[in-house]
Design goal:
alpha+beta, four-stranded mixed beta sheet, 32% strand, 103 residues, Double Stranded RNA Binding Domain, 40% helix, single chain
Length: 103
């Protein structure tokens, strides 16, 4: 799976990039996708406590799975995104497996 990481308004640390590659790469155990785009952004509004935004879009085999979360820091946002993506990928995998089992 190809993973493209980008950011707007925030600097990405090496640890965050490595964790993103590792955790998004592990999602391929659910369903083999071709491309994963991960975009980090920072909210500039001082009233918002959860400033770091992580948006993940995964594409492959005619399917697209996406989520957008906000958290206090980038690592927490990545973890929340993984928690949201796992059920979506599981549902897509079981749906396609059931489709192929029908006679």
């Amino acid at each position: 799976m190809e993973i493209a990481i980008s950011s707007r308004g925030t600097e990405l640390s090496d640890a965050l990039v490595a964790a993103t590659n590792q955790k998004i790469g592990k999602l391929s155990r659910f369903l083999d996708m071709d491309l994963a785009r991960v975009h980090y952004a920072e909210e500039r509004n001082p009233r918002i406590a959860e400033k770091e935004i992580c948006e993940v879009v995964m594409e492959g085999h005619g399917h697209q799975v996406q989520c957008k979360v906000a958290a206090v820091d980038g690592m927490a946002a990545l973890d929340l995104a993984i928690e949201k993506l796992e059920p979506q990928l599981t549902r897509l995998k079981t749906k396609s497996a059931a489709k192929h089992k029908r006679p």
